[in-house]
Amino acid sequence: MEYVCFKCNKTVDLEKHSRVRCPFCGGKILYKQKPETVINVDAK
Ligand SMILES: [Zn+2]
């Protein structure tokens, strides 16, 4: 599952990194990334 670092706003995949810690800046505050709502308007 992907998380976003609170400090550097980079996406962190915690499945690869078992530690709850940003590998980029070492920040320990990560929050779940909001699911992207993709509205595909293809009515043509
Ligand atoms: Zn970070």
SSE layout and pairing:
Blueprint: E1 2-5, E2 11-13, E3 30-32
Antiparallel strand pairs: 1-2, 1-3
Bound molecules: zinc ion.
Residues 5, 7-8, 10, 22, 24-25, 27 line the site of zinc ion.
Number of strands: 3
Spatial order of strands in the largest sheet = 2-1-3
pLDDT average, as an integer? 82
Provide a count of the helices: 0
Q: How is the main sheet built?
A: 3 strands, antiparallel
| SSE order, one letter for each helix or strand | EEE
- Report the CATH C-level class: Mainly Beta
Q: End-to-end span in angstroms?
A: 35 Å
What does this structure look like?
This protein is mainly β. It is about 0% helix and about 25% strand. The chain has a 3-stranded antiparallel β-sheet with strand order 2-1-3, with no helix packed on it. Strand 1 and strand 2 form a beta hairpin. The chain is elongated, with a radius of gyration of 14 Å. Zinc ion binds next to loops.
